[in-house]
Amino acid sequence: MRFSVAAACRALAGLWWLGCVTVLASCSTTSGPTWTFADIMPKSGPGAVARLSPKNSSSVRGTLTFVQRGDKVVVAAVIHDLTPGPHSM
Length: 89
Description:
By secondary structure, the protein is of the alpha+beta class. The chain has one domain. The chain has 2 helices and 3 strands, in the order H-H-E-E-E. It has helices at 5-28, 37-40, and strands at 47-52, 61-69, 72-80. Strands 1-2-3 form a 3-stranded antiparallel β-sheet, with helices on one face. It is globular, with a radius of gyration of 14 Å.
């Protein structure tokens, strides 16, 4: 499956916004999210999966899922062992 550079940029922008929303939501409550992975990801359609692997002495790992919805790309991430605080991609 091929994605254009513009689609990849939109996907990364979506991931950035998802991270911002997650950080803001975690500041306002101690309970878990009210949505599930299945709520935001369609059951089928063109997409791709990226696996995050630990680098250097890090133990951070996870999965990013990209699914096309019309002319947009939805990005969902499940990341483990990420320390609290700001991060960049």
